[in-house]
Amino acid sequence: RMEGRGSYALPTGTEYRGALRDGMFHGEGELLFPGGGSYRAVWHRGVPTQGGKYTFADGLEYKDKKWHYCDGYDRRFYTEICSGLKPAGISQFTNLDPPRKIPAGCYDCGDGFYNPETRVIVDYKLRFLRNADDDEHEWIIRTCRKAWDETTEHKPKP
């Protein structure tokens, strides 16, 4: 079994780096997620115990107490908090600037693109992730950003 310091790649693309004991995460270690986020903790027999901290891909650290990011009073994205707001008319639609280009007819559901015709979710490299059930389908249609259905162009006043 694995012992000492090392790394372990899970089939999901997540990687663990840190202390191992008897084949389990044990001691200080970090999970690195494919989307860029990470979770640092002290582990005991494969279970995180003390000091668990999640950091999003953009560097924002999650806090379970006094979490003020994107609350009812401050709706800025983290990149806007760090870099400031853009001038009027150049608003950000996502934390990424510029935002991802969504394939025609699809939605950006946070971990990939969703095609409501096929009900398939693919990651941002267009690899299959999962099929959406009825609840997830409804949630995505109701809340997620969709690719433009039609092109728009500036029409000067006569």
From TrEMBL:
InterPro entries: MORN, Morn5. The keyword S-adenosyl-L-methionine does not apply. The lineage of its organism: Eukaryota, Metazoa, Chordata, Craniata, Vertebrata. It comes from the Eukaryota. This is MORN repeat-containing protein 5. It is found in: Cell projection, Cilium, Flagellum. It comes from Smutsornis africanus. Gene3D superfamilies: Histone H3 K4-specific methyltransferase SET7/9 N-terminal domain (2.20.110.10). Keywords: Cell projection, Cilium, Flagellum, Repeat. SUPFAM superfamilies: Histone H3 K4-specific methyltransferase SET7/9 N-terminal domain (SSF82185). GO terms for cellular component: motile cilium. The keyword Repeat applies.
